[in-house]
Amino acid sequence: MKCTSNMPILSVAVCLFLSGCASSGASFVDWFSAPEKHTPQTVDTTEKLEKPDTGIRYRAEPKELIAKQANDNNQPVAVYRAPNTLYQPSFSHKSLADYAEQLTMELVRNGRQLNTSSKVGIASFVNLDNSLTQTTILGNQLAEMLIVEVQSFGVQVIDFKTTSHIGVGASGDMVFSREAGRLSRQLELDYVLSGTLIRSEKGVRVNARIISTSSKVVVSSASLLVPDFVVRSLQPQYVLVGE
Questions:
Q1: DSSP 73
Q2: Using a CB cutoff of 8 Å and minimum separation of 24, what contacts does 14-22 make?
Q3: Which of 1, 87, 191, 192 has the most CB atoms in a 10 Å sphere around its CB?
Q4: Residue 97 DSSP SS3
Q5: Rounded distance, CA 42 to CA 40, Å?
Q6: Greatest CA separation found in the chain?
Q7: b/e map of 20-34 (b: 16 or more CB within 10 Å)?
Q8: Alpha helices in the chain (DSSP H)
Q9: Spatial distance between the Cα atoms of 51 and 54, rounded to a whole number of angstroms
Q10: Where are the domains of the chain?
């Protein structure tokens, strides 16, 4: 493009400007258009971290291995089937001893007159009926367990079924007896622990009390329900039949 001398100054400037664009290789659009935005490229330099090996491995149980082996050999496998109800003695972690401990804690807490010098005798629990003389396996076993639990709290327990001598026999050495003639007639007891049993559909309600032997005043009492499945677990699973 040629520039003439009679052009105005502005025209000369435009002419020189365009001449410079032609010489530099840039176009008119390049000068007056908006600059392009260049997005910087990022390079991911982070490496994938491997999880540390804890050394914990899954170990199949024997029954799983047996089932897999039997499945490969097309053999039948004996599968455990859960019972209809989970309230079974063999599946419960709470026994009669736990209820005896709970009962003792309530009796000691409520018996403010009891101390380490108190002498307590523990008798069998009886059914709540018109005679108050019928006991059960639950009543006898509960009394035996209470001897251990009450003594563990520091209270003196007098075992009045202990005789004055040890009877040596072929079947064993005996020191306990329920015969009145072999037992001491005079007992130094301050209190007696016993109670009643009330049967219901849910179990057996145990009403325990500690009674003063001199005034017959109840110095402590407690009550709890022993579930039916625990009571049934005390019954023997077999019957001995004589010839």
A1: T
A2: none
A3: 191
A4: helix
A5: 6
A6: 156
A7: eeeeeeeeeeeeeee
A8: 9-24, 28-32, 62-72, 96-110, 137-152, 228-233
A9: 9
A10: 95-233
Q: Please give the CATH architecture assigned to the domain spanning 95-233.
A: 3-Layer(aba) Sandwich (3.40)
Please provide the distance, in angstroms rounded to a whole number, between the alpha carbons at the two ends of the chain.
Answer: 139
Cα separation, 111 vs 221, in Å, equals 8
Q: With contact defined as beta carbons under 8 Å apart, do 73 and 115 qualify? A: no
Among 115, 87, 85, 81, which residue's Cα sits nearest to residue 191? 115
Q: Which residues partner with 211 through β-bridges?
A: 192, 218
Please tell me the predicted confidence (pLDDT) of residue 243. 47
Please tell me the distance from the alpha carbon of residue 182 to that of residue 162, in angstroms, as a whole number.
9
Contact 230, 141 (CB under 8 A): no
CB neighbourhood size of 224 (10 A): 15
* Residue whose structure tokens are 């622990």: 193
pLDDT number for residue 17: 54
Q: Determine the Cα–Cα distance for residues 209 and 127; give it in Å rounded to an integer.
A: 14
What distance lies between CA 129 and its chain's CA centroid? 38
The pLDDT, as a whole number, for residue 229 is 86
Distance between CA atoms of residues 159 and 115, nearest Å: 18
Percentage of the chain modeled with pLDDT above 90: 38
Q: For residue 71, which amino acid is it? A: N
pLDDT given at position 167: 87
Instruction: Specify the amino acid at residue 41.
Output: Q
Q: Which residue reads 């935005």 in tokens?
A: 37
pLDDT at 166: 87
Residue numbers in the chain where pLDDT is lower than 70: 1-93, 236-243
Percent of the chain predicted with pLDDT > 70: 58
